[in-house]
Amino acid sequence: xxxxxxxxxxxxYGTRFLPATKSMPKEMLPxxxxxxxxxxxxxxxxxxxxxxxxVTGRGKRAIADHFDISYELEHQISGxxxxxxxxxxxxxxxxxxxxxxxxxxxxGLGHAIxxxxxxxxxxxxxxxxxxxxxxxxxxxxxxxxxxxxxxFRCSIVAIQEVPHxxxxxxxxxxxxxxxxxxxxxxxxxxxxxxxNAPSNLAIIGRYILTPDIFDIIRxxxxxxxxxxQLTDALQTQARRGCVMAYKFKGRRFDCGSVPGFVEATNxxxxxxxxxx
Length: 276
Hints:
Layout: E1 5-9, E2 30-31, E3 34-35, H1 36-46, E4 51-56, H2 61-66, H3 71-77, H4 87-95, E5 97-102, H5 109-115, H6 117-120, E6 125-128, E7 132-135, H7 141-152, E8 155-161, E9 171-179, E10 182-190, E11 201-209, H8 213-219, H9 230-240, E12 243-247, E13 251-254, H10 258-271
Parallel strand pairs: 1-4, 1-6, 4-5, 8-12
Antiparallel strand pairs: 2-3, 6-11, 7-13, 8-11, 9-10, 9-11, 10-12
């Protein structure tokens, strides 16, 4: 079964990048000359998830505008050398379909995903958090996970090993190792204290979810700050059936932090940027 939809929770405020994000969506922050959210959309489309469902919020109009034609700009640079700089976004617009819904209140990742149910329907779907920029020589992380879904037909979370003293920044899993890099999840804990963490296998911003997750999220009680955590819903799903964790191939940058954003910018500039 092909997975052809990917949900993008892009309603957050990006407070770690203030004042830049006071009026500009954090997902539109550029890694060299391309916004973070476009990297994510390109990864989803490569995986066959050509319907990109955006859960947005107030002040996020720039995201919708980016994934649309700018007739004035097109007219101004038509026939010039600058026109080639639009090739990547033109390709995305040709291949992708973009739908949007607003998350009226910020109540956590679980709530954001539930808000997007009307855009997804009753089918498995990807979830991509633009803060996590993943760069690969081969297939992207979502493409790797989509292939794995065809084998297991259950929810899958992407994981990576992190230093033990940093597990309190992530959701962390524990489970049975089935083969290299693939685990059947027994336990998931959101931002545990290092001394209480079940492992150092941290969940990063790539998921494939089965549609029963929506009903589970509805049953999930809010946690700290009234937020509904996706990790809690996935823990319930793991108890009821099956959730897999996958140690993906590729390099991940935490662009939700300023140091990670700068590291990603330097890496992309050194390895991929070509000035016309």
